[in-house]
Amino acid sequence: MKDSHTISLLVADKPGVLVRIALTFARRGFNIDGLVVSRIPGSDLSRMTLTSSGDPTRLEQIVRQLSKLIDVVRVIDHTGDSSIQLETGLVKISLDESNRETIFATIREYRAEVMDESVGALILSIHGSTERVHSFVQAIPQSAVREVVFSGKLLVARGTEPT
Amino acid sequence: MTQTQHPSGAKALIQGLEREGVTHIFGLPGGAAIPIFDALVESPIKLVLVRHEQGATHMADGYARASGRPGVVVATSGPGATNTVSGLLTAHMDSVPIVVLTGQVIVGALGTDGFQEADVTGITYPVVKHSYLVKDTNDIPRVVREAFHIATTGRPGPVLIDLPKDIASKPCTSQIPETLNLPGYVLIGPPDPKKIKAAADLIMASRRPVFYVGHGAVISGAGEAIRALAEKLQAPVVNTLLGKGAVDETHPLHLGMLGMHGTAYANSAVMNCDLIVSIGARWDDRITGKVDEFCSNAKKIHIDVDVAEFDKVIRTDVCVLGDARAVVEGLLPLVGRLDTKDWLAQCASWREKYPLTYSNDKGLASQYVLDRLNHLTRGEAIITTDVGQHQMWAAQFCLTKHNRRWISSGGAGTMGYGLPSAIGAQLACPDRAVWAVVGDGGFQMTLCELATAANLKLPIKVLIINNHYLGMVRQWQELFFDNRYSGVDLEGNPDFVKLAEAYGIRGLRINSVADVDRVLEEAAGIHDGPCVIDAEVAKEGNVYPMIPAGAPLSRMLIGPPTVKLEKPTGST
Predict the structure, then answer these.
(1) DSSP line for B432-473
(2) Of B102, B136, B169, which residue constitutes the final position of a domain?
(3) A7 is in which domain, residue-wise?
(4) pLDDT above 50 (res B1)
């Protein structure tokens, strides 16, 4: 059984922390599918949102091992909860007369934003759930897609719940 | 204040160690570590100069296991530091508090492939509880304080401090902090009374309980409480290899070691119990065999200080998070006597029916030597072991009466552990008899430390169970690989008696049954330095009972198999 899990971590902002976390996954043969890291301003902590998939029991073990790391202050597996989740995609596409109409129809449908337009190429941004971002990219004629950059999932717990 | 009045980083480091109560430091110098060694010159801390850094880590480990206080190692950069990796693994697997200080190239040379540079924090991440690469001299007092706190609290483990040479040389203007700021390291509080009550209820509902005692019980000093609990309930006790000595193994309720080479009566009790209570043990594969069939009809209680151990291997009915001693003491007033008369009678009948046996018919049995050692030491001496057949025989026959007197590499199974750990144990407990029971294979991995022991005139007794084979692998090849011996014949072994003499220490030999008591007693009487006893034992003795790796406990072999065995499914 393979489940995708979204895990948030509050960690010390210092060298080596990411390695310790990554090794906890790698040792068990788990891939990190997505990772967002950034410093929390005004603190010596960083926030990570990480996605991985695999056997849920093993992932539960990984989360427990992560929480044992001295530099990890908090780790929460948000899988299945109703957290606010957000991802951004940047998509570079080849634009010509044959696909122009279809592509702009898709942009309007998804309310994507045109970030840059140059001769033959268009850069679009799309925000929303991972599903929505991926669905947008799927909706564009694949022959026109030159590059895709996803931010990885961002997550914050609802209400007063901690992330 | 002028700069010169401040201590160097290395001096601040050593002051930090002194403040932690460090008495001995085990190490070997090198270029990047010279400032640290220089700072040791005027320190009251005794420097034990080793011959190889692996030995230093095992000495610190043996010191820690014998005393309960953290052991400290100092090594230089590059290969000096990488030589500590096996020792870090050993300590990490068995939750032993050691602090390893490594010299490092200067900060500006980090990552440039400088001479004797190694990415030591990188190499050791998976085998430490925590580690530091210090890049500011003023961090040193705090880092030392944190390192000892982390190594010794919660579930103990090794901590490494990598110290660039220039950082060690610059003046340190900071003080040892009074309080620690480790938001990611929160120690668990007292155990949850509701969980203790749930455990007590399960215990009181059982008819055939068994207590399964591990290293956590040794570390927390829970043995007396466990004995009281077992006596109050009239419940049998078994222990793991590392749990030996937490509860007196000669106690009538004690059935000895369980697991792959445990006693048949301990394993029979585990197979037939209706409740198994793990106290500071982690359901290791040496214990469970095939997990799906392990105690499948018994209730399970797991007492552990590490929440990550719960449900890691086996699903349990009640988990109690806490220090083993606190939990067991919490259980004591909640339980009463159980009607276990039939159960204890059953256990006694297994003990009678399946005793540990051996025979000297095919030459001197290793078990006989260790049985006689047990007779001589009576569970009072500290016994350290190496890894392999002799280790299992010593575990079976040398019954341990007291906490912290059995010192053996369990999780990692590190050959070469026996001699250096004995040196550390003897330094921690100078008045206690210390025997290192080693095999001829493992002994040769760290025998250079005979020089260390000889130099310090430590009266440790190195008993080599010499079968001229890497015996445990040979046993597997005999039983599971059609007698196809590969890489196990230790042809070319030195004459260990002459070797001892070359180090200027006594060498004794046991050639026959008739020699055993006389030579062991002679060795016991040597107090002015170490001695080496070469016990020439039967070459092809096997360790029984044996549960093939990955097999259920019910497949336990009491003696030589009568049918051809399949290759084990377990990894080792």
Answers:
(1) S-EEEEEEHHHHHHHGGGHHHHHHTT---EEEEEE-SB-HHH
(2) B169
(3) 3-77
(4) no
Percentage, residues of chain B above pLDDT 90 = 97
What does the pLDDT look like over B402-436, one tens digit per residue? Answer: 999 999 999 999 999 999 999 999 999 999 999 99
In this complex, the residue of A27, A64, A71 whose CB is nearest that of residue B308 is A64
Contact A163, A86 (CB under 8 A): no
Residue B568 lies in a domain: no
**Residue B481 contacts A where some CB pair is shorter than 8 Å:** no
**CA-CA distances (angstroms) from residue A111 to A103, A104, A127, B316?**
12, 10, 9, 51
**Over 70: is that where the pLDDT of A2 sits?**
no
Residue in B with minimal Cα distance to A10: B184
Which residue, chain included where needed, has tokens 């309720």?
B253
- DSSP, collapsed to helix, strand or coil, labels residue B69 as coil
pTM comes to: 0.96
Tell me, yes or no, if B165 is annotated catalytic.
yes
**Is A23 an 8 Å CB contact of chain B?**
yes
Q: How far apart are CA B385 and CA B439, in angstroms?
A: 8
**Chain A residue nearest residue B156, CA to CA:** A68
User: Catalytic: which of B271, B392, B472, B556?
Assistant: B472
Q: Is the dihedral of CA B479, B355, B376, B215 positive or negative?
A: positive
Q: Is there a single domain that holds both residue A92 and residue A145?
A: yes
Which residues fall within 8 angstroms of residue B314, CB to CB, at 6 or more apart? B283, B288, B291, B294, B300, B302
**Mean pLDDT (whole number) for A106-131:** 95
The verdict on whether B53 is a catalytic residue reads: yes
Which of B119, B145, B312, B321 to mutate to test binding with chain A, by most A CBs within 10 Å of its CB? B312
Q: Is B432 exposed, middle or buried (0-12, 13-18, 19+ CB in 10 A)?
A: middle
Residues B349 and B401 in one domain: no
In a domain, B177, yes or no: no
Q: Is residue B116 annotated as a catalytic residue, yes or no?
A: yes
Close Cβ partners of B200 (under 8 Å, ≥ 6 residues apart): B331, B334, B335
Range of the domain at B448: 366-544
| Amino acid present at B125 | Y
Contact across the interface for A27 and B121, Cβ inside 8 Å: no
Tell me the three-class secondary structure of B475-499, residue by residue. Answer: HHHHHHCCCCCCCCECCCCCCHHHH
- Where is the domain boundary, A18, A51, A77? A77
Beta carbons within 10 angstroms of residue B561's beta carbon: 14
> Is residue B472 domain-shared with residue B409, that is, in the same domain?
yes
B178 has pLDDT over 60:
yes
Per-residue pLDDT at B113 exceeds 80: yes
Query: Number of H helices and number of E strands within chain B?
Result: 23, 18
> Which one of B353, B375, B400 terminates a domain?
B353
Is B373 among the domain residues? yes
The residue among A10, A124, A148, A150 whose CA lies nearest residue A78 is: A10
Cis peptide leading into residue B252 (ω within 30°): no
CA-nearest of B486, B483, B503, B485 to B494 is B503
Nearest residue on chain A to B125, alpha-carbon basis: A20
Residue A112 sits in a domain whose CATH number is 3.30.70.1150
State the amino acid at position A122 in one-letter form.
Answer: L
Q: How far apart are CA B213 and CA B228, in angstroms?
A: 14
Sheet holding B24-27, edge to edge: B46-49, B24-27, B71-75, B98-104, B159-164, B130-133
Residue at B564 is within a domain: no
Calpha distance B360→B375 (Å, rounded): 17
Residues B375 and B326 occupy one common structural domain? no
Q: How far apart, in whole angstroms, are the C-alpha atoms of residue B162 and residue B553?
A: 44
- The angle at the Cα of A53, spanning A48 to A59, to the nearest 5 degrees, equals 75
